[in-house]
Amino acid sequence: MPIVHDDVRTTGIVTHERYYWHDNGSAAGTRRSDGVVLQPGEHVESPESKRRLHGLLAATGYLDRLTPIAPRPATRAELLRFHTDPYVASVAAVEGWAALGTSAFVGPGSYDIAILSAGGVLAATDAVLTGAVTNAYALVRPPGHHAEADRAMGFCIFANVALAAMHAVAEHGVGRIAIVDWDVHHGNGTQAAFYADPDVLTVSIHQDGRFPRWTGQLGERGEGAGVGANINVPLPPGSGHGAYVEVFERVVVPALRRFRPDLIFVACGYDAGAYDPMAHMMAHTGTYRAMADAVVEVAAEFASDRLVVVHEGGYSSFHVPFCGLAVFESLTGEPSGIADPFNEVAGLPYQDLQPHQAAVIDAAAAFVDDVPTSRGESR
Ligand code: ZN
Q: Is residue 2 part of a domain?
């Protein structure tokens, strides 16, 4: 059940029609069609799952409960807080279609749309930090958590969440930020951005070895002063609701409580969903509701409710809208009364925590005691 607070919470939403116009070009899944064996079709990172989430909110009237926040383009200076100047210039210089890096394509207008995506998360962050809204959801595209300082990757052009966290520090003086990444792929770009930073806790829960192939391992725990402030939970394929709930109970929530964030971001991918074509997990709407409820609760406890949820992956066009609705219900505290028509996956065998999943979670839970504390500061 959504958590109901006594105070009135307002939830902001950022979106823009142009987010749905970023075009990865014709593809078979993620592969460029070759005219020989790969029939041309829609790239898996299409607008559809995102547009249909917005469509469900609009069609059911739930959108009326949300406060619209206008996006703006991120400035060059804001991009350069993380990205290198040559990289930003190279994206800006693309005309028409291009492959930018590992599994990242751009089409006409993609630079402008990508800076509007990054800037949309900045606008959501500003709205939360100025108190215009209690929390916010950035329904932006292209996604960001794979983008590194000098390269695009995994459908991501600019590092939306990392840039927003840096913005929160630079412009609002926020001291301690936690980023929880439940996209099913490893948040390698976000991890890289704050790997040596003890004031930004990054936690990524993902399918072991799915993408990027070799990052996101348990042993990647930060460097220098940042040791302990990065936690990876690489779950085995096939993990379901029980595993995700256990990760939150044993790793995410204890780590957040120890860290005591002033602001929380969620890199919110829905590709751990049981119907997703890009991964092999079994999460369902109840899983997303449980994870969002846990984060909302910690935000209320330590961060004055300040929480920014940022849309990342999720490629089942029919399932993502209902998983997303569950997250909105958590953010607002108001149930929609709409049942997930695809929820039969919640009853599949092996949804419960399995021993080989528990072994990974045990290992990650052992790292919680190394999460940097606020050094006894009163807050
Ligand atoms: Zn993903």
A: no
